Amino acid sequence: MDITNKVIWVTGASSGIGEALVYELAKRNCKLILSARREEELQRVKKNTNLSDEQVLILPIDLEQFKDAPTWVNKAIEKFTTIDILINNGGISQKSLAMETTEAVEQKFWNINYFGNVSLAKAVLPIMQQKQHGKVVVITSILGKFGLPQLSTYAATKHALYGYYESLRLELIPNNVSILLAAPGFINTNVSINAIDGDGNITNENSDAQKNGMLPTVFAKKLINAIKKDKKHVYIGKKELLAIPFKTFFPNLFYKIMYKLSQKN
């Protein structure tokens, strides 16, 4: 898929993976819709792209307010009249034991990571279906394939995205609209620092795995390459990606090792 001059919407665009994607897409002369909660950070990212006001729309959104998705889409269409690619990247992470996580916090994860993601896609898809062309890119996680301690609800939302979008992908074949599920491993961003605990407080703690993870700039280039190749699914990361086949073929040993590793943190 040629992405040159395409209208591309990136959520979670104010930092980390989303910010890195914006810079790479700007190099390809794309028209960009930048979304996240913090407008001042979106303005900073826009300034760094050196793109004109005609090429960029700053559209602050809060995925937790997912019922507003149709309104967000209307604002995007007012600017660019169409949307070619939606990169559903926005979300939050967790650091709390399952039994110490309140129902309110669990609902927050579902509202942002699942309903916010799905509701935005469903609001955008009629535009793509009408023109018989488009792509939804969903940033999941390798934790959509297995779970780890202190990440129960986060992993659950990522598992759910797989089930939903793998089903939706087949439904969209007649409309020539495709879906790419992209599962990052450990990426060197502030996602762990901004993770929330069982009461909804930001933990402000990083992990060695995150600090030693793949650079967001490298991730962005690999993801864009996957988009251009029209891939259906891609894992992007370092040696942690070996956990996927390891769990498949040696599940008992896998969970013993994961448990021991979790006790060290």
Short description:
By secondary structure, this protein is α/β, with parallel strands linked by helices. It contains nine helices and seven strands; from the N terminus they run βαβαβαβαβαβααβαα. It has helices at residues 16-26, 39-49, 69-80, 103-131, 152-171, 208-211, 216-228, 243-249, 251-264; strands at residues 7-11, 31-35, 56-58, 85-88, 134-139, 177-184, 233-236.
Task: Describe this protein's structure.
This protein is α/β, with parallel strands linked by helices and 265 residues long. 46% of the residues lie in helices and 13% in strands. It is built from 9 helices and 7 strands; from the N terminus they run βαβαβαβαβαβααβαα. It has helices at residues 16-26, 39-49, 69-80, 103-131, 152-171, 208-211, 216-228, 243-249, 251-264, and strands spanning 7-11, 31-35, 56-58, 85-88, 134-139, 177-184, 233-236. The protein has a 7-stranded parallel beta sheet with strand order 3-2-1-4-5-6-7, with helices on both faces. α2 links the parallel β2 and β3. α1 packs parallel to α2, α1 packs across α7 (216-228) and α4 (103-131) packs parallel to α5 (152-171). It is globular, with a radius of gyration of 18 Å. The termini are far apart. The model has no long low-confidence stretch (mean pLDDT 96).
